Fold this protein.
Amino acid sequence: MQSVFAVIAFLFVAFLILAAAIKVVQEFERGVVFRLGRYVGVRGPGLIILIPFIERMSKVDLRVITLDVPSQEAITRDNVTVRVNAVAYFYVLDPDKAVINIEDYRRATAQIAQTTLRSVLGQHELDDVLSQRERINLELQRIIDEATEPWGIKVNIVEVKDVELPPTMQRAMARQAEAERERRAKIIHAEGEYTASQQLSEAARVMADAPGAIQLRYLQTLTEIGAEHNSTIIFPLPIEFLRAFGVNATDIPVVIREDPES
């Protein structure tokens, strides 16, 4: 009976030794090995044999990590309060630094991303935050990457997802956009009037050189109006128009129609 217990105890101890000695590291992982508390190297992937109870290994995931930066309230350079959230993509470049130089590299990277987001937004005006999004993203990526480099972290992408404005600022921007569109409409209308005036001035010079063109234009206008409306047309005739044909104003007969009721 005692021999049975001895065998069971031996098997249990052997199982503990094997469990402490044999480790499996996945393809996307690396193992940082410490021997009696001292760093001895990075191993993996595959089967790793450790000295039981003397060597210890910490696994580090090398895959790209998606970090959601929560909404941060920041004040832009032109004193506008905005709420901005972002997303960052990073991965562990040096597993030994990620284990030795920092206690929790995920949490530390998240904190750096939040503080950097507030700091960078405070250096730009609201118009730049809304229109120069790509430049701000590159600046955020550069600053966060430099801050996390001693931890063995490589930041690939940082993107600002959403910018929330106060309701008063939204209404002010809507009025500004409306005024800008009205300004553009007036400019376009003025440019059209200027172009039309140039064409009319050119046409006037052509008609001045050829007096018969005025009469042809007059007859064409009457034809167009008569084709659309079957009614009496009263067309005012300027005195200058008659002078082109050699007719004086004193030669025009004046017909006075008396009212029969008067």
